């Protein structure tokens, strides 16, 4: 199953979807200001009748909720940009955010999107004010099936099989396969996110090593 639907099925009415931040469609200063406001509000008055919050939001919002456990998923940041670019190109609608609309209406090239200031080091923008070590689990999208199963065992207490949803069947093996020079430049431009992703991969390798040692 898809992670969102798995969480909804597991937590039922105590599941909450949080997709209000629109972190890629608001100025960074506004996104941070709103996250700080919500962090203070949630510290004093945590969400009631909620056991799970899922969505695209800054984890800072819930950093000071007592007993909260944080998990996240990362994808190769360059390939994630490629996926977002093509997804935005084909999904503009009335409710789309300002940056999404601007990108489509101005007909940005892939290079303009990838090397523009608007999307630079997106992971670091999302994790602003939140120590990466606070994540109890970091799943890797490129290893989604295995990490999904481990996530369910550890945090939901049961086995579950992943199901591919919202995947573009026409997606290439790599969005940069025809332009390795653009990928090199993008890796430099998004160096902070590339470094974070490599850190997450190393943590996953260590997690698997410990799991293997424990099984032995």
Q: In words, what does this structure look like?
A:
- By secondary structure, the protein is mainly alpha-helical.
- Helices cover 50% and strands 8% of the residues.
- A two-stranded parallel ribbon has the order 1-2. A two-stranded parallel ribbon has the order 3-4.
- The chain is built from 9 helices and 4 strands; from the N terminus they run H-E-H-E-E-H-H-H-H-E-H-H-H.
Q: How many H/I helical runs?
A: 9
Give the rounded overall mean pLDDT. 92
Order of helices and strands: HEHEEHHHHEHHH
For the largest sheet, list the strands in their spatial order. Answer: 1-2
Tally of separate domains: 1
The shape is: globular
Features:
216 residues; mainly alpha; two-stranded parallel sheet; 9 helices; 8% strand
In short:
With about 220 residues, the chain is mostly helical. It has nine helices and four strands; from the N terminus they run αβαββααααβααα.
Secondary-structure map with pairings?
Layout: H1 3-11, E1 15-17, H2 28-44, E2 52-54, E3 70-74, H3 77-90, H4 98-105, H5 110-115, H6 122-126, E4 135-140, H7 144-156, H8 180-189, H9 191-215
Parallel strand pairs: 1-2, 3-4
């Amino acid at each position: 199953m898809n992670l969102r639907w798995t969480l909804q099925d597991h937590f039922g009415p105590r599941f909450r979807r949080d997709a209000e931040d629109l972190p890629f469609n608001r100025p960074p200063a506004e996104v941070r200001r709103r996250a700080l406001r919500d962090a203070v509000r949630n510290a004093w008055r945590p969400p009631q009748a909620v056991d799970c919050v899922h969505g695209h939001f800054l984890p800072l919002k819930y950093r000071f909720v007592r007993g909260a456990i944080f998990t996240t998923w990362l994808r190769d940041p360059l390939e994630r940009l490629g996926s977002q670019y093509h997804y935005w190109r084909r999904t503009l609608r009335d409710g789309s955010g300002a940056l999404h609309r601007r990108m489509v209406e101005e007909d940005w090239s892939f290079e303009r999107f990838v090397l523009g200031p608007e999307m630079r080091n997106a992971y670091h923008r999302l994790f602003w004010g939140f120590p990466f070590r606070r994540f109890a689990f970091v799943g890797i999208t490129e290893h989604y099936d295995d990490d999904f199963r481990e996530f369910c065992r550890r945090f939901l207490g049961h086995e579950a099989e992943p199901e591919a949803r919202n995947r573009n069947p026409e997606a290439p093996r790599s969005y940069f396969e025809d332009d390795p020079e653009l990928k090199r430049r993008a890796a430099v431009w998004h160096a902070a996110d590339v470094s974070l992703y490599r850190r997450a991969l190393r943590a996953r390798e260590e997690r698997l090593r410990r799991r293997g040692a424990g099984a032995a």
